[in-house]
Amino acid sequence: MRKELTKDARIEVHREDGTTAVFAVDAIGTFKKDAFPTDKVYGDTRGRPELRLITCGGNLAQDRHWDSDVVVFAHLTGEA
To answer: CB–CB of 4/72 below 8 Å?
Structure first.
C-alpha cells in the first residue's frame, strides 16, 4: 500500500473468493473530530458501490490523540 493516495489513484481490494475489486479515489478530506461529516461518509452512495477508508490525522493534541480524521472517498470501477 502506498503511503499517500491522490485523486484518481487505484485501490485494489482482494476478496476472499479470489476476485479483486478495483476502486478509483474521488477525493480525500481531513475533518476535525467534532465536525466529522457522518452523512457524507456513511450516507447514500447514489446506488453505486463505494469505498471509504478512514484513519487518524491532523495534529497530535496534548493528550497524544489526533484531532482529525482523514477520509478517502472512492468508487468501484470494476474488477481485475
So the answer is: no
Residue span of the structural domain in which 64 resides: 10-79
**Separation of alpha carbons 28 and 70, rounded Å:** 7
Task: Write the burial class of residue 23 (CB in 10 Å: 0-12 exposed, 13-18 middle, 19+ buried).
Answer: buried
Question: Is 53 within a domain?
Answer: yes
Task: Identify the DSSP state of 10.
Answer: E
No. of helices (H) and no. of strands (E), the chain: 1, 4
CA distances from 60 to 56, 64, 66, 72 (A): 10, 6, 4, 20
Tell me the pLDDT tens digit for each residue of 53-77: 999 999 998 999 999 999 999 999 9
Query: Does a structural domain hold residue 1?
Result: no
Strand stretches in 15-65, DSSP E: 20-32, 50-60
Domains contained in the chain, number? 1
